[in-house]
Amino acid sequence: MTIVQATINDLDALTELFDLYRLFYQQPSDSEGARAFLHDRLSNEESIVFIAFDGNEAIGFVQLYPSFSSVSMKQTWVLNDLYVKETGRGKGFGEALIRRAIAFAEEAGAKGLLLETAKDNVTAQRLYEKIGFVQETNYFYFFSV
Hints:
This protein is of the alpha+beta class. The chain has helices spanning 11-24, 31-43, 93-107, 122-131, and strands at 2-5, 48-54, 57-69, 74-84, 113-115. The chain has a single domain, classed as Aminopeptidase (3-Layer(aba) Sandwich), CATH 3.40.630. A 5-stranded mixed sheet has the order 1-2-3-4-5, sandwiched between helices. A hairpin with a 4-residue loop joins strand 3 (57-69) and strand 4. Helix 1 (11-24) crosses helix 2.
């Protein structure tokens, strides 16, 4: 297993993974749109993406977006996307990607790393808790379109 920070040179492998990720969330396949979206994030330095490889095969990725905490006056990171191909699940790729994201946030001197998951995604919740994430109980999150 190898994990590297993605660059524009990884766009082909990342596009395939990102399209599969969107299919997992029941979105229509859109390789061209996925490629353009990722190209913009990477070229504009709007996100950090790590890719996991099993040999030469791209097997998963994690994407982080920057945010800030006004109260602590520090940067935070949002772990927004995590995906591992079915063939790589249960083999530690997801955990390794999350641990790399945590290490990146620590190296950057960030306040922390935030993520969210569906209430019924208990498999992911167990993994996050195993790694050391704690479910937030002091705040409600609201969303508006």
